[in-house]
Automatic annotation (TrEMBL):
Protein name: Maleylpyruvate isomerase family mycothiol-dependent enzyme
Any Pfam family matching the protein: MDMPI_C
Gene Ontology molecular function terms on file: isomerase activity
Mycothiol-dependent maleylpyruvate isomerase metal-binding domain: residues covered: 15-153
Record-linked InterPro entries: DinB/YfiT-like, Maleyloyr_isom, MDMPI_C-term_domain, MDMPI_metal-binding, SCP2_sterol-bd_dom_sf
Keywords, ordered alphabetically: Isomerase
Amino acid sequence: MTVHPSLQPSIDAWTQSIEAISELVSSLVDGEWNRPTECPGWSVRDVVSHVIGGECEALGDPRPIHTLPRDLYHVTDETTRYLEVQVDVRRHHTGPEMTSELEYTIIRRSRQLRNERRKPDDVISHPLHGKTSLAHFLDLRVFNVWTAEQDLRRALRRPGNLDTPAAHIARDELLRRLPKVIAEDAGAPKKSAVVFDVNGPVEFLRTVRVDENGNGTVESSPSLGPIVTFTTDWETFSRLASGRVRARRVADKLKVEGDAELAERIVTGFPMAH
């Protein structure tokens, strides 16, 4: 038995992106670990801690027993509280401690993935994602790692890897979340369509259609009369759709046509993705 062939592209994408993170942080000096990122309350060190914690949980390691300080303003609900434990427990780790734990975690997780014998549609349970297929869980890990890689690259001013296999998996995950953001959260009218026209290293045109029951779906066919059209570049889309930046901060890179009020509800409704 070997790894199911349909899982291999996700494993390869994960490997490339997490090794890029390891390379990015391997030569950081003390002050660089403390640089702020676009994740509220999180430094470069904290984002790396988040990646390590996510992979340790995927490995089945027990969660740290740790009490969070009460004054963390960015911890606002059960999800952020859950994520913060793996971050706060490493807040005082040195750079060498961080890089060595990251490298060791990558070795362990790579070994686990090489020996993966489960099928893509086998169901697994996760405290944040609920029940999901193994294939989708692996894609979520790719999405998490690539998004963290980009958080780190922006904080360290080392841009790159916007068009890797992991970036394409991240695109698919962000698109999968659009119907909820547009149809449910922003309340787009029934029988309407919202178009995203994205250019750059990852280029796509997608329409979110809301049917007569208020349910949203993503399609690759264009819409003749969209209620809103967003035109932007891939990096700006990924930052907006993962809740990293608000529309007003990237207004020069985002063209909005159509219903201004609905557009505002959409761009302010993107949740922080981890």
